[in-house]
């Protein structure tokens, strides 16, 4: 279970000033459960761990099994909330190095940017391999995944002819959007994203669960993590005993005292995509109306040799939250050498895990001494179940924190601005006039 440790932050939180933030966070938690807060049409994620249907889990596992049996590679196409959750769990839990094979396919991602080199190299990589596609888009109209799917559908058709459709699983809206129309017309197997669950809260829907099952993750364990922590978070009304309420209150307190940037740090770079997922969750949920904490991430000790300088000595606008799993999966023991040429014999007999832990503690002490409050999120290990707990903890905290801040944590109006300009510059039907104006601005007349 998750524990919020504040030993390296408490000196930054004067008790008289903090109580109102705790009270506000608990009131925000109540608003969340009243289902009357802003964006309440997107609260499907709140009880989802309790409502998830066994028949849906079974169908996901069956469909995943079908693709696993016939594919060496499965391409998961999606952007934002439609890929970050599954990628985060896969990067954290799968072996770093493994060869693709039929029966245990490699999962690769596409449709999350527009770099042509990446897509053409991926298409080349797939040429001599059996592959399938899981295309994911709630709206069914997002440009990046739609372009990627167009390319991979053509490749599938070329390779498998009429059997291509059986190699596509589409995850989208139940009734609307271009992807739904595409899927119906070609007869793809489809999974539905509930209307009341937004993209960044959708990892517990087929959006996240299907790619995990395809990669061989025991999705029931992942779901169990969500279910376990839900019970704790929903029932604890003491804000100091509820880690999500406490975390949300601390974030908003730090923001009010001029700390505009939260760094989610880890000492296990396999958690890097957990941070990417978290950045989308908090960035899209809180960054609006000129408000919000800027969510940043760092992988330590790597980034201690680059951004560490700024954290230690730069502008004091930061606080840190450190992902701290207790157990590590495999450890190495350092042995002594007779000549001690690398001068490392002082470490002989220690495990690398122990060395990393001292690096973690040393960093927290140094950063706190340098004026950066450091929170630790302590959880048991990097397993699907613990990650399920962690992800629900963050979803729940984000909703409380957003309500405390006074924003709607479930919309993302700002995401549209770049899309509108891009469509105008690409002369999409209906955007011609805007395109003309933008081109003039770019040319400076
Ligand atoms: O959180 C969100 O809603 C967004 O980031 C979406 O996940 C992202 O834009 C992808 O949208 P879609 O699934 O409609 O293609």
TrEMBL record:
- Keyword annotations of the record: Cytoplasm, Gluconeogenesis, Glycolysis, Isomerase
Could you tell me which pathway this protein works in?
Answer: Carbohydrate degradation; glycolysis; D-glyceraldehyde 3-phosphate and glycerone phosphate from D-glucose: step 2/4; Carbohydrate biosynthesis; gluconeogenesis
Signal peptide interval: none
The Gene Ontology terms for molecular function here are: isomerase activity
* Reactions the enzyme catalyzes: alpha-D-glucose 6-phosphate = beta-D-fructose 6-phosphate
| Location of the protein in the cell | Cytoplasm
Stated EC number for the protein is: 5.3.1.9
According to its UniProt entry, the function of this protein is described as: Catalyzes the reversible isomerization of glucose-6-phosphate to fructose-6-phosphate.
**Similarity comment: family membership:** Belongs to the GPI family.
Q: What is this protein called?
A: Glucose-6-phosphate isomerase
């Amino acid at each position: 279970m998750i524990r919020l440790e504040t030993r390296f932050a408490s000196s930054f939180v004067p008790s008289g000033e903090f109580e109102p933030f705790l009270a506000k966070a608990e009131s925000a938690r109540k608003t969340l459960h009243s289902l009357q807060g802003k964006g309440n049409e997107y609260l499907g994620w709140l009880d989802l761990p309790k409502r998830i249907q066994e028949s849906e889990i079974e169908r996901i596992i069956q469909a995943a099994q079908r693709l696993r049996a016939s594919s060496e590679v499965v391409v998961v196409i999606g952007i934002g909330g439609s890929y970050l959750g599954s990628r985060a769990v896969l990067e954290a839990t799968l072996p770093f190095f493994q060869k693709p094979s039929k029966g245990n396919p490699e999962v690769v991602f596409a449709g999350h940017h527009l770099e042509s080199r990446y897509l053409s190299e991926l298409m080349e990589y797939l040429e001599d391999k059996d592959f399938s596609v899981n295309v994911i888009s709630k709206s069914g109209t997002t440009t990046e995944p739609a372009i990627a799917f167009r390319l991979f559908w053509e490749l599938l058709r070329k390779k498998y002819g009429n059997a291509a459709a059986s190699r596509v699983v589409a995850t989208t809206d139940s009734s609307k959007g271009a992807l739904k129309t595409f899927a119906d017309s070609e007869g793809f197997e489809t999974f539905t994203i509930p209307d009341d669950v937004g993209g960044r809260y959708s990892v517990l829907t087929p959006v996240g669960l299907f790619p995990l099952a395809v990669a061989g993750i025991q999705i029931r364990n992942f779901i169990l993590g969500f279910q376990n922590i839900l019970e704790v978070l929903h029932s604890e009304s003491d804000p100091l005993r509820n880690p999500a309420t406490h975390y949300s209150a601390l974030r908003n307190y730090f923001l009010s005292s001029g700390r505009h940037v939260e760094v989610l740090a880890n000492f296990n770079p396999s958690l890097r995509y957990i941070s990417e997922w978290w950045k989308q969750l908090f960035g899209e949920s809180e960054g609006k109306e000129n408000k919000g904490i800027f969510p940043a991430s760092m992988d330590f000790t790597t980034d201690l040799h680059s951004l560490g300088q700024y954290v230690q000595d730069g502008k004091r606008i930061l606080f840190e939250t450190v992902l701290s799993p207790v157990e590590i999966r495999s450890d190495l023991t350092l042995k002594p050498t007779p000549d001690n040429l690398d001068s490392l014999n002082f470490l002989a007999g220690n495990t690398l895990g122990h060395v990393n832990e001292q690096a973690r503690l040393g960093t927290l002490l140094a950063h706190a001494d340098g004026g950066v409050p450091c929170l630790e999120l302590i959880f048991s290990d990097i397993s699907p179940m613990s990650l399920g707990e962690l992800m629900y903890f963050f979803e729940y905290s984000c909703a409380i924190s957003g309500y405390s801040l006074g924003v709607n944590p479930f919309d993302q109006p700002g995401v549209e601005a770049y899309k509108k300009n891009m469509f105008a510059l690409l002369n999409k039907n209906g955007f011609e006039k805007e395109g003309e104006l933008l081109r003039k601005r770019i040319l400076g007349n």
